[in-house]
Design brief:
Length: 179
């Protein structure tokens, strides 16, 4: 936001809405992986029902956001709620088709932890920086640094999971990588 306000002041008002839209893409990307299960089992209408319900939630929450805030930011955050409804519903539905709904609940719970941590960390960082740092460019630079430090445990965990999943298939030296 500070860079946008500095370089393009006329676009600064929409930066909060853009942040909300960016935040809402996370559950959509996660749910995108399980949608193939609906196609593989020829149960697309079940997926359409989940999409319609999530769209109705998005529309209702976006309308509520506009009513409460009177801004595009309220609409963006309201629309994001529907995507956060879509992820668990589509995941649980897809795993139910596979006969393993309890695994879906576990998967959704594991995905909710990093989402909650990242959202809380960035919101607290933003609030503290707005209160303590007045210069917008300095606030942006410090914000990036603080969020990077706060996200380090998630990045480390993702790296460990990646390494554990690939196991011995990863090259251990440059020579192995070229062979």
């Amino acid at each position: 936001e500070p860079v946008i306000a500095f370089l393009w002041p006329h676009l600064a008002a929409g930066s909060e809405a853009a942040r909300a839209a960016l935040f809402a893409t996370y559950p959509l990307v996660l749910a995108g992986l399980v949608t193939n299960i609906y196609y593989a089992h020829d149960r697309q209408m079940l997926h359409v029902a989940v999409l319609l319900f999530s769209a109705a939630v998005s529309f209702g929450c976006a309308h509520l956001g506009i009513t409460l805030t009177g801004s595009i930011t309220g609409a963006a955050f309201g629309s994001a709620v529907g995507l956060f409804v879509y992820f668990p519903l589509s995941t649980i539905g897809a795993y139910a088709l596979l006969g393993r709904p309890s695994e879906a609940v576990y998967l959704v719970a594991r995905a909710a932890g990093p989402i909650s941590y990242a959202a809380t960390a960035s919101a607290v960082t933003e609030a503290l920086l707005r209160y303590f740092v007045e210069n917008p460019l300095l606030r942006g630079a410090v914000g990036i640094l603080v969020v990077a430090v706060l996200m380090a445990p998630l990045i480390y965990r993702a790296g460990r999971l990646f390494r554990n999943e690939l196991g011995s298939r990863l090259p251990t030296s440059p020579r192995e990588a070229t062979d």
